[in-house]
Amino acid sequence: MLPPALDPHQFAYRKNRSTDDAIATALHLALAHLDKRNTYVRMLFVDYSSAFNTIVPSRLDRKLRDLGIDPSLCNWILDFLTDRKQVVKMGPKISAPLTISTGAPQGCVLSPLLYSLYTHDCVATHGSNAVIKFADDTTVMGLITDGDETAYRSEVDCLAQYSQDNNLILHTDKTKELVVDFRKKRQIQHPISINGSAVERVHSIKFLGVHITRDLTWEEHTNQVVKKAQRRLFHLRRLKKFGVGPKILGAFFRGTTESILTGCITAWYGNCTAQSRKMLQRVVRTAERISGCELPSIQETYKARCVRKALRIIGDPSHPNQKLFELLPSGRRYQSLRAKTQRMTSSFFPQAVRLLEKHTTPQPSTRTPQQQTVVTF
After folding, report:
1. What are the residue ranges of helices labelled H in 119-198?
2. For 69, what's the count of Cα atoms within 13 Å in the CB-facing half-sphere?
3. Positive or negative, the Cα torsion across 101, 106, 110, 111?
4. Per the database record, which ranges form the Reverse transcriptase domain (predicted)?
5. Using one digit for the tens of pLDDT, what is the confidence trace for 198-252?
6. Phi first, then psi: what are they for 52, rounded to 5°?
């Protein structure tokens, strides 16, 4: 159903896209820009109130037709969203029915997708900015050079106007800004205002499940996931006392705890400190002792997922980051990504290129890049 013209920086509800794609893209844009002289990055994390409830069906219908969606499907969606009846039931009493023709039904599996299509035209208007979206999570990135914030401030104004034009309620009190500035001589950045209200600037923020800080370090994130994972180990110990076998204990760990430790790991683990890595691995070792079964290390999981994600990106021409994986003229090696700082060197895309060189062998042929690459783990 999704048309090829859909904004590539909308990462929700699309094949071969996930939250770690959105996070890795945002971090790569920031780190690549910060590798240049006299630069900094401003990131605006926008909060929309009741986003799905604000969709205007007639406007959505026009946008779907502009995207080339089949008219019969557009008519069905328009009919689905208009003149909906709802009531409130409390015990035996039922309220009078209310007819609704705005928004998409809460809890409906189609609503997030319709919202993504509704906001497909919410894109950056300046080349030095980027708008990263995952459903209703919207992040505006301003890549500032030489202190010139004109384009970034204009982008924020455009977003505010876009929200107003499309009946989106921009919640200024919950919208936050993060400024990443590694310059030795930092200047005071004046706050951003939306509709006359100043946006709060924060030192850290939770972005799609990952804690991002203004210095782009990951101690806060690893501390949070380790605490959460350790609470899960309590249940693992209880199961052990009940006589549950190693095989089931291992499956329980993978389903309840490993997913916490390794969530979006490709985006952040590369820049973790040695101490943070030890903390993460300590949880795995504890789980091994409790369960009595061998578990993959965090480092092994990270490398395997980096290679797997890189191969998926290489095989997806519509992915916005496919261009970062270019074969050299020989067709046997990938071109290394330029990096001046350790932050950039250790981030996902440079790491993925190096891991591909180490664990895979590109095979020159007329097939697609994904088919050309043979994994040699």
Report:
1. 150-165
2. 21
3. positive
4. 1-212
5. 999 999 999 999 999 999 999 999 999 999 999 999 999 999 999 999 999 999 9
6. -65, -25
